[in-house]
Amino acid sequence: MAFGYGTGVTEYQKGLEKSKERWERFLQSNSKAKSTAEQRNSHIVVGLPGVGKSQEIDIIVEQNSNNLPMSMDNHRGLHPNYKYIILKYGIDSSKYTKDFAQGVVDGFIERAVKERYNIVVETTFGSKIRAENRIAQLLGPKDEKINEYIDPYNIQLTVLVRPVSLCLFGVIERYDNAIKNNDPGRYTYTDDIDKIAKVFPNNLAEIYETYQKYISRVEVKNYGVVFWNNYGEKYKDISLTKAVKSELNRQLTIEEICDIRDVSRGFVDNVSRARTAKLLKNELRKSYNKEPREIILNTKNELLSNKDVEKALKILERKEQDIGRG
To answer: The whole model's pTM is what?
Structure first.
């Protein structure tokens, strides 16, 4: 059976073909979005896996329903072998639907551009080439005589940034919520998030510098709070790269660590619990040079009990042997 991550064009082409078949149904499910004769608007939501891009898209569309939401996750289930992939690959199934879902989204965007719809799209900017291709798709053809794009989208950029550990926990929480809802869990591993985090600030800065003329508005957020933008005097002396790196690499506060602990107590999956215990232990060692059992917030609120830690780590060790990676 020819499918899966690494099959490249074959899977991608399947996605493009599926987008043609599903376009009208996609429009029906987003019936408030209307084609426009005026300048089109595009909203690009950027951030690491687990940072909350899908939720941000929901907020944008709720505030302005005249947008078509473009998210790969919404279309993975269209893969013709989806059920088989889930059964065979489980936690790693997203790898085997990635190229297909990318093809679906690219096909939808191509059609939306042609039919003059406003769109909201998400991306990680983990690949500079893919990011540039996406922006080129929105800018459209160029009049070479005057070196200007003929009918470009007005582009707005929302950059979601949290410390890498919080993004990892976002991935863990997303996976556990899927398990609770009897859905196939989608997981992104720590090393994959780290790889994106290393290139993300520079890719973002280079894309912004190259296409600044066509990006009317940039906002950098953490949990809905804007901490950098390109239109206010407050941030004119702070570079985009510096603002992003500062938030991405900062240590977690004790309050954030406790929030992770509290949320994870509602997890139903042992792998989710174990990965969270490992995350907490690593974060406390890195940021505070402490073991989890050494930090007590007050006499009634122990950060993570010895029993919780030892139990979770034993589960983690067993599961990592099964999964083959941490």
So the answer is: 0.85
